[in-house]
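Case study 2.
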Amino acid sequence: MELASTSLPVFVAPVGLANLQVVARFPLSVLNPGHIWWKCLSADFPRLAADPSCCDLPQRHDLMHCYGPLRRAILADGERPIIRNSTEAKQLVKLLQGMERASAKHNTNGGRVAGILLGRFELIEWDGNLKLEGPPTVFTLPSKLHEALGASSTAVPVRMALAPNCILLQVGAHQATQTDPHTDQGNMIMDVKAACADGVLHYLQVNVLADGQIQLAHAGVHVFPELENESSEDDRVEVLCALFLRDGERKIWLSHLVDTLHLDE
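Prediction:
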């Protein structure tokens, strides 16, 4: 037991620890305690989770199902933990697995580029300004995705705000001068989905330009009771969001209730 508590988290990666449980000849109960997995995961992936209870059973299953997709995703810059609690981990598993299937289908159907971005966003209620305020969530994009998006830098800031019937999305830094006409800024679209226990955020096929201009997203729905509560003093909420960014046909969406109901079309 002492060996498992001290040596295994140092010398064995999380995947190796999982495999060891399958083939180990000593009692499997030695590898079950959550603190052993917490040490192992913290050494290998310090940003994975903030709450050690995520490594206890049965929550550990959701956390480990997130492990692979998170390693393949583009994480927001910074050192803040990605997953705060077991509820986020449970919701994030389904969200990321669905986006990975959509990404594979996109590539099979001739898509040129796709990426899944994951980070925490500070969502505010829109005050009517032409530029969204508040700290952005910044992603450092790989070259292929950066070139397709046409951003001025590989470090791309993203901001979001909530309006009554849509969300507002601001990608990239605001440019004082017009975009270089020779820049390859193709058609890029984005799905925006949240893993949140206190609300819902689900928008599909948002048109994206990395020029700092505000883009409106109508094809989806968002509900955050915390912001709608008149007695609450908070006018913002922090939400873990995944963004599925890929090349695709730009669409003109009309704001109709039927659009918000057919989320999977």
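The longest strand covers residues 114-125.
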